[in-house]
Design goal:
This protein is of the alpha+beta class. It is built from twelve helices and ten strands. The strands form four sheets. The chain has a three-stranded antiparallel beta sheet, with no helix packed on it. Strands 3-2-6 form a three-stranded antiparallel beta sheet, with no helix packed on it.
């Protein structure tokens, strides 16, 4: 069944063995004598249901082993302006979001997400496994392989995103990403941006991953650019490699419920390593913080985060030493 699609048969054949005589000799190996024979044409009918129009191809009752059929399929129509809609993300979508906010939009590993939600971790995709992040960085990993090919053909129906949670591509992604965002930003404009794009894509056949990939790619590029714009001139004016290094500071700095820089007030903190050191007393390490503080915070212009960490560890100073495990400054 092909939704929103028309189809026509180009040809259908199978090989018929006309003789089983051994034609090989001492020097040449020859196969059996065969000839092409057409198979009965399929029944191609168009219909519709509550999900919209579709084309059904019914294979003939007699379809010999090894037979093949080649079809030409095409999408009759698509929503006007769909390509422009999914390939543009205005900067206002991320207006007012700081680097901690962008940590939730782009990243959040499994342990971090489970810590701040009702034990909802990263998304698990059949035939692929769990994504590394709940944010856009997680989805861009699975679309990277599909984007180059689908921008040309748009019909990689075997790509793993086609089987995501048993839903259509758009439904699965929207449900998963919105579940993540609603815990952090219930009124975030990005949620509305995704909803509008996926509502439009739902009008297209389910087997076109092109538009799914374009939506994720467009949002990811816009989020990345906004994040870089919040950093120091050294980062913003740097090359792509410098930008990637700068994004590491956003990846490692976020807020979780079980770890803070204050014993009673929740605050963001640096993770010693992801995904293993993401929460509770194992998240914020004195050794790791002060080894990486210059590169992650000072170089990127994230001075407030550096100041907060220095004050937090200074407040726990004892006998001239700071603890290796801050544990939210709980004594």
């Amino acid at each position: 069944m092909l939704r929103g699609t028309d189809a026509e048969l180009i040809f259908g054949y199978h090989l018929v063995v006309s003789s089983r005589e051994n034609r090989s000799d001492a020097f040449t190996l020859r196969g059996l004598a065969t000839q092409l024979e057409a198979v009965a044409p399929p029944n191609i009918r168009s219909s519709s249901d509550t999900h919209g129009p579709y084309t059904e191809i019914i294979v003939p009752p007699v379809f010999p082993s090894g037979a093949i059929m080649l079809f030409r399929i095409w999408v009759e129509s698509s929503p006007e302006g769909i390509h422009g809609l999914v390939s543009h993300c205005h900067e206002d979508v991320f207006k007012g979001l700081d680097l901690v906010d962008m940590n939730a939009v782009l990243y959040r590993c499994d342990g971090e997400e489970r810590d701040v939600t009702e034990n909802n971790g990263t998304y698990n995709i059949p035939a692929y496994g769990a994504l590394p992040y709940c944010g856009l960085e997680g989805f861009i990993r699975i679309t990277t392989s599909v984007i180059p090919s689908v921008l040309i053909s748009g019909t990689d129906i075997g790509h793993l995103i086609m089987s995501y949670t048993g839903c259509t591509v758009s439904d699965g992604c929207l449900l998963a990403f919105n579940r993540h965002l609603k815990h952090h930003y219930p009124r975030l404009k990005l949620r509305d941006w995704f909803q509008t794009r996926f509502d439009a894509v739902k009008q297209l056949p389910n087997f076109l991953p092109k538009y799914f990939a374009l939506i994720i790619r467009t949002a990811y590029i816009a989020a990345r650019e906004h994040t870089i714009s919040l950093m120091s001139p050294l980062i913003t004016k740097g090359d792509r490699f410098t930008h990637s290094l700068g994004l590491c500071s956003v990846q490692m700095y976020g807020q979780v419920t079980s770890a803070s820089l204050h014993p009673t007030n929740p605050s963001s903190s640096m993770a010693a390593g992801l995904p293993h050191f993401a929460q509770a007393h194992m998240r914020c390490w004195g050794r790791d913080v002060f080894i990486s503080l210059r590169g992650l915070f000072l170089t990127t212009g994230h001075y407030d985060a550096a100041r907060r960490h220095i004050i937090a560890f200074a407040s726990s100073l004892k006998h001239g030493l700071i603890p290796n495990l801050l544990n939210s400054v709980r004594y």
